[in-house]
Specification:
Two copies of one chain form a homodimer. Chain A is mainly alpha-helical. Chain A is built from nine helices and three strands; from the N terminus they run αβααββαααααα. Chain A is elongated, with a radius of gyration of 19 Å. The structure holds a DNA duplex. Chains A, B: This is DNA-binding GntR family transcriptional regulator. Chains A, B: GO terms for molecular function: DNA binding. Chains A, B: It comes from Ancylobacter amanitiformis.
DNA sequence: CAATACGATATCCTATACGATTTCGTGCAG
DNA sequence: CTGCACGAAATCGTATAGGATATCGTATTG
């Protein structure tokens, strides 16, 4: 968990260049390899549980084994890949239902409280940025379902992350961002449908911020997280 | 010359449970390198911010560069070491005061709630184990200060971890354990004095568990964490 | 037909060599 | 005496080779 983490959920649509190079030695080769693998995981190009061979990555990325191993080790430390001795690396398995519930339990313990604090310390400029982020979400009616969801996933992550930033606790913010990367993969697997409800709930949170009402913000966030959980829970019954 | 020289048992300096040579083939060399470096960090044999050269590790552990790089990458993913391009690895810097306060903020949001849940679901056997762990802490009056603190640090970690285990949320448990590794290094740096207060506070938590009183357990844990914070805060004024 | 044994392939794991870059010590000039 | 420049040492980054092990397909036998 590194400090300058600029919310990495932005690599979702990274698919265009299908080439096998374009990796230049700008700031460390291992860094780029890491991001390349990370993007593949986030985009489900490597589905959960799938094997990850270093030879394939050597061919695809046109770099030697060493930086690839280093990047894989780092991903292992973050829990996104697992390694079994004499077998190799593979993407982390799909999240279990129990884990899912534990994650929402954690979110419910932290995010409403953080939303309440954010409401107390909200500045006008921060509120404007937050409203802008939420606004982008609502005005994309014509695009197709796939792109629409991708758009929502990014903006939803930004929305929650900005609230945590205003709340002021970087450690909690990093913790939730880290968990979000795991969660994102799960959500993508089931093509969770984005309903208008989520947008309405975001609007309710914004209203509480605008009123500088910590209690209302806390309650609105709690309702939002709980409903988000309930919207996704049926995915486990498939 | 393919003799896999066993890692020197130097990493078990603080661990009295040295179980001789272990299963090399089962776990992999990188695993052992990881644990060796981890132990060095926990024991402050590598102080915060110090450089970590792979050549030194090659000589000390008698293994090649590759498994060392892999282990360092994993440690980087966990945030215990940092890497700067074309400079190398170094131990993570000392925790800042702000980070310290954020950590206790997080603990206060989670641990009292978890203690309350634990009190509700506490079994007799779990309570006995917990009491045993707390009991070990109090009966070591004759030893020297250094060993006494080392003993306390281990048992305190076990105490809190067992409570989280009873509470039932593995994700929260893992999160706090992970943060504890960072915190442990800080606490060790300042030879934080272990007062009898901490033991009394643990006893109060146990009493609430014995009475199966969630509200009392939550309150006792809150008091304990807050006082722990206040005991350590003066270290930043040095 | 099913189950097991065997062998070929793929992959991991380790070791070593070489180039690129930073860092640090030393000497010289101001 | 201090600051700067230059060069040597140290270290990282990369690449390649070879040994060890698991996996998978095929053939053989009950």
């Amino acid at each position: 968990m590194r400090s300058p983490k600029p919310l990495a959920a932005s690599q979702i649509a990274a698919e265009p260049h299908g080439g096998s190079q374009a990796i230049h030695r700008a700031a460390g080769l291992a860094e780029e390899v890491y991001e390349a693998i990370f993007a593949r995981l986030m985009a489900l190009k490597i589905p959960p549980g799938a094997r990850i061979t270093v030879d394939n990555l050597v061919r695809e990325l046109a770099v030697s084994q060493t930086p690839i191993r280093e990047a894989l080790g780092r991903l292992e430390g973050e829990g996104l890949v697992v390694k079994t001795h004499l077998v190799g690396y593979s993407a982390a398995p799909q999240i279990t239902r129990r884990r899912f519930e534990e994650l929402y339990d954690l979110r419910l313990l932290l995010e409403p409280e953080m939303a309440g604090r954010a409401a107390a310390t909200m500045t006008d400029v921060a509120l404007a940025e937050l409203t802008a982020a939420a606004g982008v979400m609502s005005r994309n009616g014509g695009t197709d379902e796939r792109a629409r969801y991708s758009q929502f996933a990014r903006q939803d992550a930004v929305f929650h992350d900005q609230i945590l930033e205003v709340a002021g606790n970087e450690l909690i913010r990093e913790t939730l961002v880290h968990q979000h990367t795991h969660f994102h993969i799960f959500r993508l697997m089931f093509h969770a449908r984005v309903t208008e409800e989520a947008l309405d709930e975001h609007a309710a949170i914004l209203a509480a911020f605008a009123a500088r009402d910590p209690a209302a913000a806390e309650q609105a966030m709690r309702v939002h997280v709980e409903r988000s959980r309930d919207r996704l829970l049926p995915a486990f019954d498939l």
